[in-house]
Write a structure and sequence with these properties.
- This protein has 13 helices and 10 strands.
- The protein has 347 residues and is an alpha/beta fold.
- The protein folds into 2 domains: 129 residues, ATPase, nucleotide binding domain (Nucleotidyltransferase, domain 5, 2-Layer Sandwich); 174 residues, 2-Layer Sandwich (Nucleotidyltransferase, domain 5), CATH 3.30.420.40.
- A 5-stranded mixed beta sheet has the order 3-2-1-4-5, with helices on both faces. Strands 8-7-6-9-10 form a 5-stranded mixed beta sheet, sandwiched between helices.
- Helix 6 runs antiparallel to helix 10.
- Bound molecules: 5'-O-[(R)-(carboxyoxy)(hydroxy)phosphoryl]adenosine and zinc ion.
- The site of zinc ion (ZN) has 6 residues, from helix 4.
């Protein structure tokens, strides 16, 4: 008997994502982004995001079914992001999932977007080893996780005390006059810069911080340091070397993320690590993580870049995981929860 077909719906921010999987096999991953409509505001506008999801979700659903070569009648279960995210945006996905679930008579799982960012790697590299350390780095979250019991348990080892890593990229990009979202632009521009040009602060690496905050991060000081560095150049009438600032800032983020990730593995005796979330698409983070994991004898897994940024496949992957483990579907009245904690895998 072939594995069940799971439809995944993602509408937590500015991407309308529909993913379809059969077990660990990805059949379709349709994404409609409203990012261009937010760009001129320099950040995601929740009302615009919600309206765009309403317009995009049905066509995306149709395209995904066509790509997967299925009809909705073939779907065995539905998974939808229940949080965290923008509540008005989440509601579009949650209402769609509940309506489809009732019409098709299939179970609906309201799942955690952040857990999806970690579990999506199963579509590319197969089941996650037990235990695995997860480095989750997105636009709104940065955490180090201990994932155990076949992904049934997610423990937060540490998180950012202020800005998320993606937020740091976006804010520094803005300071450099690069478009929103800034992460991919910093990545691109940094290719022509010198990562050693400027020694930006790493955050929580001062005396005593290693003991007090072994697995936490802080990126707001980095953003301030970049802003001050740029202001000083401008005040002196000097040109700002955009590529060098981008490369040095990227180096600081990759350095602190990978150092803590390797420490978490060592301290907990875990030999496997997975990186997920939009920032996992960053080329320098991927390369540095590989170098440091190789040196430490840790097996690194990172999904391909298009599965790192928000998508429906990650939601379907987590739904398939829940279905396979015999987890109960969510109650019909499960809510969209903007601040769903990373430790709560589903409703
Ligand atoms: O996971 P994601 O797509 O959405 C959230 O759940 O937040 O992450 C979006 C974040 C943005 O801050 C974006 O700038 C960042 O991921 N990002 C990157 C890259 N691609 C996306 N940051 C650095 N380098 C990249 N290549
Ligand atoms: Zn995300």
């Amino acid at each position: 008997m072939s594995a069940p077909i799971v439809l995944g719906i993602e509408t937590s921010c500015d991407e309308t994502g529909i993913g379809i999987v059969r077990g660990h096999r990805l059949l379709a991953n349709e994404i409609a982004s409203s990012v261009d409509e937010h760009a001129r505001f320099g950040g995601v506008v929740p009302e615009i995001a919600s309206r765009s999801h309403l317009e995009a979700i049905e066509p995306a659903l149709r395209r995904a079914c066509t790509t997967a070569g299925i009809t909705l009648g073939n779907v065995d279960a539905i998974a939808v992001t229940a949080g965290p995210g923008l509540v008005g945006a989440l509601i579009v996905g949650v209402a769609t999932a509940k309506g489809l679930g009732a019409a098709l008579g299939v179970p609906v799982y309201g799942v955690n977007h952040l857990a999806g960012h970690v579990v999506v790697d199963e579509l590319h590299h197969g089941p996650l080893p037990d235990p695995t350390v997860g480095l989750l780095v997105s636009g709104g979250h940065s955490s180090l996780l201990l994932v155990t019991d076949d992904v049934a348990s997610i423990t937060a080892l540490g998180q950012t005390l202020d800005d998320a890593a993606g937020e740091a990229f976006d804010k520094v990009a803005r300071l450099l006059g690069l478009p929103f979202p800034g992460g991919p632009w910093i990545d691109r521009v940094a290719a022509d810069g010198d990562p050693q040009a400027i020694d930006f602060p790493r955050g929580l690496t001062g005396p005593g911080d290693r003991e007090r905050y072994p697995y936490d991060f802080s990126f707001s000081g980095l953003k301030t340091a970049v802003a001050r560095w740029i202001s000083a150049r401008e005040a002196a009438g000097e040109r700002v070397p955009v590529a060098d600032v981008a490369a040095s800032m990227q180096e600081a983020v990759a350095d602190v993320l990978t150092a803590r990730m390797v420490s978490a593995c060592r301290d907990h005796g875990v030999g496997h690590v997975v990186i997920g979330g939009g920032v996992a698409a960053n080329s320098r983070l991927r390369a540095m993580a590989q170098e440091r994991c190789d040196a430490a004898g840790i097996l690194l897994r990172v999904p391909p870049p298009d599965l790192c940024t928000d998508n429906g496949a990650m939601v379907a992957a987590l739904g398939a995981r829940l279905l396979a483990s015999g987890a109960d579907p969510s109650p019909v009245d499960f809510p969209a929860t903007s601040n769903l904690p990373v430790t709560q895998r589903s409703w």
